[in-house]
Amino acid sequence: IRTIGVLTSGGDAPGMNAAIRAVVRTGLYYGFKVMGIRKGYNGLIHGDIEEMTARSVGDIIHRGGTILQTARSPEFKTEEGLKKAVSMAKVFGIDAIVVIGGDGSYRGAKDISKLGLNVIGIPGTIDNDIGCTDYTIGYDTAMNTVQDAIDKIRDTAYSHERCSVLEVMGRHAGYIAVNVSISGGAEAVVLPEKPYDMETDILKPIIEGRNRGKKHYLVIVAEGVEGKAIQIAREITEKTGIEARATILGHIQRGGSPTVYDRVMASQMGAKAVEILRENKSNRVIVFKDNQLGDMDLYEALESKKTISEDLIQLSKMLSL
Ligand code: ATP
């Protein structure tokens, strides 16, 4: 392997720039040529590719988003698009591609690998919903952004004796939701992984809290939950008489300067991807498991499943008294 391509794909996440920077600089350090591929798999198909230098990744470590930009590429999912992508890699002399993205992007990487191009995956998504790893780039920053919003909302909820119902991201995963329910001191949390009962899981803790003297309330709803924040807020108002307001945080959770944790992890993951290529290993993904940075076979990674911690769910409930 002489030339490494790097791209970001799927939803952007704070810390992706730190990972790109690490791939480029570690790559150059070891004598590889590094090519930046813009707009995910789309850029690969259309040859939106440029050689990277140490300077082209200067002044980006603190920036959210991704300087390479990202895209969802339906064309890449077609046989023709995939073939174009692989032949474009050949045109630019790219021997291996580092893909920073979520599990959808890993599926794309698997398709590329079947056509003989070496790929390394780096987990990048705020949702933390990749089965093979305990951590994904951007997850920590997103949780801190949510926490910041909770602290602000709490001030106004207290002043008006209201109930705030906050919808947080995570697609079909409740990792952000359960953690911020603990860090933000929520009365209730609703997760996509668990069926919930309006009476026992939401109304009861609020009413019991009121009886114990609470003046304001916080309910966290993960975006993948049926019913959603607005409807849940309406029902709380109707059934308890407490004024409930829904806030949907949306894309604010995807932006912002990455936390120290995300920057350091992304840097380590980027460097690890290059080290793996140096060892001539192929089709691997970088994982963080049991507090250890490692790598794993791409195909195996796609089969891995993880579940949300029951201990965290239980703790969230216990602390809401
Ligand atoms: P996030 O979790 O942040 O949304 P993601 O990587 O899961 O990130 P997707 O939109 O699912 O985001 O995937 C990104 C791109 O990867 C798609 O636009 C497509 O080009 C490719 N891709 C996704 N799923 C597949 C698949 N099943 N087979 C081949 N390629 C895929």
Report on the structure:
This protein is of the alpha/beta class and 321 residues long. The protein is built from 11 helices and 11 strands. A 7-stranded mixed β-sheet has the order 3-2-1-4-5-10-11, with helices on both faces. β10 (284-289) and β11 form a beta hairpin. α5 (139-160) packs across α6, α6 runs parallel beside α11 and α7 (198-211) packs across α8 (228-240). It is elongated and about 70 Å long. The model has no long low-confidence stretch (mean pLDDT 96). The structure holds adenosine-5'-triphosphate. Residues 9-11, 41, 72-73, 76-77, 101-105, 107-108, 111, 125, 127 line the site of adenosine-5'-triphosphate.
**Largest sheet geometry:** 7 strands, mixed
Using only C-alpha atoms, the radius of gyration works out to: 22 Å
Distance, first to last CA: 58 Å
What proportion of the residues is helical, as a percent range?
A: 40-55%
Q: Give the overall pLDDT as a whole number.
A: 96
Task: Produce a short descriptive summary.
43% of the residues lie in helices and 18% in strands. It has helices at residues 16-29, 40-46, 79-91, 103-114, 139-160, 175-183, 198-211, 228-240, 260-278, 298-303, 310-318; strands spanning 3-8, 33-37, 49-51, 96-101, 118-123, 163-168, 188-190, 217-222, 244-248, 284-289, 292-297.
